[in-house]
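A quick word before the example. In earlier lectures we treated sequence and structure as two separate objects. From today on, think of them as two lines of the same record. Here is Amino acid-binding periplasmic protein written that way.
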Amino acid sequence: MFQRGLAAAFILACATVTGAAMAQSNIPSPTLDAIRARGALNCGVGTGVAGFALPDSRGVWQGLDADLCRGLAAAIFNDPTKVRFIPLSSSTRFTALGSGEVDILFRTSTQTMLRDTTLGLRHVTTYFYDGHGFIVRANAGVTRVRDMAGATICLIQGTTNEQVTADYFRSVNVPFQPVVFERTDQAAAALSAGRCDSFGTDASQLAAVRSTMPRPADWTVLPERFSKEPYGAYIRRGDDNWHDIVRWFTTAIIEAEEQGVTAANAEEQRRTSTNPNTRRLLGVTPELGQSLKLDPAWAYNAIRAIGNYGELYERTMGEATPVALPRGPNRLHTNGGLLYALPMR
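And the structure line, produced from the sequence above:
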């Protein structure tokens, strides 16, 4: 009787867990439902930073963040053009997301504890690793930041860089004069015009600013880094299915590079691969898409649209581009970087 009782209890527990999982899977996603009803993803991006999100001469948004928006649209609609880019400043981005103006931020936004716990938002997963740095004129004779006593430093309002800069100069007891701007292009213009001795922000953005200067060789990004700046997508709290979609979309782009799946070979890999992981990733077996309430080919569609992470990085800010930023920590973990795709099974 005791054994029968244990068996009954086990069956009841399994049924409870299974029922809870099925109930969870049936919970609607208000964000996904709104996107589908609208027919487009509203994606918040920056106001213009080369390599991340910047309109080209035809007004088409280009860059890592812009292509992640396109890839997510492809995962939802199988159409990377079904995205509306909404440029947002650093000081307005979280308000715009919280109010529903955008569905997601792919906008060089550092994941921090207070942002995650006090804004009613959630950071999802890291897609880019960076650190705070400073750019100066190459002929300024400055080799380290603590030598910039009394310097005027351009900063962007509403960023972690304001605090990082103030904290560092306070820690070494060196005075400086901040000049705060709303947008990166404004700070870059002030730097070029001589209104600031330096510009302090994340190193990737400094490389982008340098690439757009009339004479890039006149500028040097100092080698020191003063913070950890992991960029992650931000969404509103309370929509678990949308969180899962964004998290696993980002993971799928990294997983594709780990598996050697590219925009060019994805179709052949889907047709011929015998690797169970590749077959799951590309939707030959449908369970991953079903778990997200998406088409089984959701990741395949995204990879075909924007490529894997390595392709995306090299195309938008790699060493062959004007930004010319080495991958550094944004290499795969197998190549000494920090990128690591969670198991997709």
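Notice the following. Residues 2-25 form the longest helix (24 residues). We will return to this example when we discuss secondary structure assignment.
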